[in-house]
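Minutes, methods subgroup
Present: GH (chair), OT, SY

1. OT presented the first of two proteins processed in the latest run. Sequence and structure tokens recorded below as shown on screen.
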Amino acid sequence: MKSLQKLLDQSALTQSEYKLIVKQLGREPNEVELGMFGALWSEHCGYKHSKLLLKLFPTNSNNIIVKAGEENAGVINIGDNQAIVMKIESHNHPSAVEPYHGAATGVGGIVRDIFAMGARPIALLNSLRFGPLDISRNKYLYDGIVSGISDYGNCLGIPNVGGESIFHPTYSSNPLVNAMCVGLLNHSQLIRSGPKTPNTLLVLVGAKTGRDGIHGASGLASRSLDSQSDLRASVQVANPFLEKILIEACLEVAATGILDAMQDLGAAGLTSAAIEAAANGQLGIELHLDQVPLREKGMTPYEIMLSESQERMLLMMQSKDLEIATSIFEKWDLDISVIGQFTDEQVANIRYKDKEVASLPIKALVTPPLYQFSPRKPKELTKLQNYDLSQLPLPVESPNQILLAMLALPNLANKQAIYQQYDHQVQDNTVVLPGEAGAAVLRIKGTDKGIALSTDGNGKLTYLDPYQGGMIAVFEACRNVVCTGAKPIAITNCLNFGNPENNTIYYQLKQSIKGMATASKALNIPVISGNVSLYNESSNSPIYPTPIVGALGILEDIQCHVTSAFKSVGDSIILLQAPSTRVSIKSLAGSEFLEFYHGLTVGKPSINPAQEVKLQNCILELIRLQIIKSATDCSEGGMITALAEACILGSLGLRCDYAKLKHLASDGRWDALFFGEDQSRIIISTPSTQIQKVFNYAEKHQVNCITLGTVTADTFQIPPFFDIPINIMSETWNDALRIS
């Protein structure tokens, strides 16, 4: 037998945690039992450093059917006896080690979370972070991750409708791959993960079990990346064609009504799926590992229990219904095996060839120790926030040169090089395509309704102020949804941070969650699901704290939606913003311009929740009444980039009067005016005949309204600063990421 320390290392358990296990059992655990504890007490499965903080999130709503933490994903009512099932989850460490299969299995895993609840997956989104692409390793990770996402999603026939991607040195060697899936079901189709009665069968369906993914949860996903370690064996192997069959077969069986419960085998494999199902049903289990179909010879009980082989599902049913399920799975040419049953004693008894290899109390397995600290604000953060931006000189280059250079930055350039690899129109529901707006819009067939979906997050702003950055992540994701005309009703999130045992990282985590909770409460929308990914570090260098928010909005009338592009020559361009917004040099805090031109990441970003809510309500009413033709928010790159993109997407120009703009800047800084990233600002276009209505509704909602200029034919003009043909801007914006 391996030494105790080696067993603890591979299970990611500490000496103190081992002593706690021994105390709870009244004996020393064997190797299989220790592996099970390691998996279920891992950061990935047990949320040891975040579960107490997650209680800060608002999780209640009149529309919620399944709350956060109750099941694999959250479920929210959208009317007409229908509900949306939604979740976002990370696959960061596997993608850093094996980018193609790591990203692909990330998609596969989140999809199984959705159809495990009886929902038909209808949309995929993602949020990606990479290091600079001029470094060969980062380019390798980028190519593999995007290919893995596209190949898997395309094979499943699920449209990949949206997302976002950011490039920054902090993510070198530790990319972020956050995958989001949305499903649709009728209320009666909902399936839970825990059975209600003893003697219910555990039926394993899908791929045979191999050695891939062992220690994926306890090792790879619950500790910092070590460049000296060979971790490829901890990465699962993807088979999207098998998953497609599994989706159809499982939903067909579910439609018969014979299932008591269903659970996917993801992180920690059979250990997590079986134990969590028993815990959710307040039952025990008896497993017979020799009944698990294997694809490799000589696998041990330890390996069988901890394998994370993909494309496997655990179905729970009564013995009388087994024949019906078997006939369906055989029709789909899928392996099906009865591997155990539930018991009325809340104990997990694991047997292999009539020999007991583990016997553990369910409650102990699913109740890891929870850690909470009282972090101090890092002194370095105060220095960054108090940096005197007023000392920065004005640019000497022409504004035209700077704008074109900014449009060519990977973070601001067109992401078509990524999303053109995805099939976003399969299933024929996608109304607003990737790149047309900050959020995707899909129709709900058989109704007049639609849904809008967005993912967003800004690690740089969260790094500079975790609380404000957390708020901004929620507000911006919801603002993107609002700018299509959809009312946000729920969010999911994925919290990507470094080592939480470090004071700075835990401070970032705690403050970000507080900020996200504040924003969610201000908008009166619940967090219905999510995931935490910690230890995102390599060579002792953590990523930027990166909370990613997935937002869901509802359009009661799918016809009443808008996109980002300007639509017609002669339309008026209007800026809607919080009344207190006065652009100053402080507006450059954490901006793309500040880093690009001055090489600095400093300042203190901020947002006012009450004013943001007023702005979003104003936009929703303007779109619902069909007063405006387009809407796009000002975020990365500032107001000038938002204007440029609206022109490029519409193949139109603009002419703005600087005299109407300059009073927005409190200190006369044109660089801050154009490139500052103040929050709570949305640019709209409307026919000139509707201007007064826009002003009236802005006044009603207490929103500041400024006419900037007019949509023109083919030139971007803001004399005396900008005068650029749209075709030049378009070529720069469209080609930048594709060339790199």
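2. SY then presented the second protein from the same run.
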Amino acid sequence: MSLQNYQLELLAPARSLEIGLEAVRHGADAVYIGGPSFGARSSADNSVSDIAELATFAHRFNSRIFVTLNTILRDDELEGARKLAWQLYNAGVDALIIQDMGLLEIDLPPIQLHASTQTDIRTPEKARFLQDVGLSQIVLARELNLREIAAIRAATDAERCSLEFFVHGALCVAYSGECYISAAHTGRSANRGECNQACRLPYQVVDSKGRFVAHDKHVLSMKDNNQSQNLAALVDAGVRSFKIEGRYKDMGYVKNITAHYRKLLDVLIEERQSSDQPLARSSSGTTSFSFTPDPDQNFNREFTDYFVNGRSDTIGAFDSPKNPGQPIGYVTQVGPNWVELQLDDKSVSLHNGDGLCYYDLQKELVGLAVNRSEVQSAAKGKWRIFPKDAVAGLKDLRKGTQVNRNRDVEWTRTLEKKSSDRRIGVWLALDETERGMALTLTDEDGHSAKAHGTLQRQLSKDSDASLESLREQLGRLGNTIFQALDVAVNFSQPWFVPASALNALRREAVESLESARAKAFTRLPRALPVEPPAPFPEDSLSYLGNVFNEAAHRFYAKHGVQVIAPAYEAMKELGEVSLMITKHCVRFSLSLCPKQAKGVTGVQGQVKAEPLQLINGKEKLTLRFDCKPCEMHVVGRAKTAIARQTKEQLAQAEQSMVFYKQRPSDSAFGH
């Protein structure tokens, strides 16, 4: 069994060098981070020099650094992407996460390539194809269930390709890579890292006769992903890389969520040690924390495990895209400039600077920032808070209102300090030699280093105390990345060794061990594509294929695709098309699905497969429902001004795409 079959990878995000360093310190086996350009988070860029520093640090623990180069590219951008890929390779980066298949047609360095979630991997056939063209790790669609993940694992080769799956963080309602609302309405493409998050807006939902189905609901806004309870099942289905979403997230989020999943995966690894398929970490060392990880403490829209265990009607955050926090108590009295609260847990304390919130009568979330808090009776859990804003302006705040806390300032301060310690275990042995003494360090990965020193062979006055003192002194590994697992002193006599000599010996041995580890570090291999070229699962690609440059066109043509339409971003699709395809179904979530209604007296026959419409101000989108695959299409068209502006920008960039004139046949929806 190869290493890839039993090693688990915890993959954490980093917005910056500093956050990346903390991700490693808090137990990440790998970190993904944006480079200076071409990453699908346009405001999460980092310099090559910062990434090089992060890679050097991570490699000390055998952790890996992956860089996102996962936008679709214009022809004039390919050379810049090629140069950047080489710079990142020379900086020590372990893998590039890509979406644009045109990159496989240019002169890339021998760096491992991973398929971004933007490549929309939902089927065994697509996964197998990406494996066969040289992608060593593929990020599966978030919408898959355990059975579908297992089917992809069965269709691919675990020796050649690892499966990666998002286990935590914000959920994009669309199949990744299949959302064009932002491009159509603003000219900012989600496939180019500039999504305007139209999915988080409130909408009126009306039927074909103009009747309201829902009013000011965030019907495209999902709760946040949390697979904490499903890790063992995901491992059994074939997942080996567990990805945390969040390249926009702050330091506290990355520390807390990385620590949370580190602890869960370590427990799972320990539980499987005696099984016939034992598991292991894919990097070195163990991590301890000065806090108890708690996902509820970070911004979240409440949690869902999405479709992993099948479809449910609780995946949406329809009332608000904000963080509702956790229930903490209720209002007992409202004063002129204060509010009295009865806390549910009398051991809980409120702090100056806490963030509280509540729902008004329209179920809109209202913030209640604490300027000052005073305990009225700790024994009874009664508190008086003085809000930052005028009490009179707090809508619908009244006696009996449930109050949540969505920011605990003390928790935030805890994570602003040092909150973890990651160490690699070593065995130390001090031996006599003909010329003096030698200290040998052997780490948990099997690397070894030795340092030599002089020994006067002067007996110590207290032999037992001397041996214990030597062991204690040698085990003080201080600010190094190592911790002593055992210290052996193999002297024929209880020789006295000055502390200064021992410290120098230990310091030299540690430096030699770090050097040995660095020399032994191996880069991830670049997978070779199979020959002859693997055929793409389909013989035509619509705009949904996201082909935006001639290199990508050549790639798909080489792999047997006969008809290749340009990406939506080329603004060739000026009529109504699917601007988003999603597994989420508004009809299902609003209990209007015909399958739900089947057999219910008085309902069957009233629910029709007619379209619904989403309205936000002047923006209108049509919802069409494809019940066979159980998918929803959000249909619309590009604004005329946006299409014209985008075409002008492409012309200025000297974009020249020549595709087949023949178009794929229309979809079942006639667009």
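Chair's summary of item 2: Residues 70 and 98 are 4 Å apart (CA to CA).
Next meeting: continue with the remaining queue.
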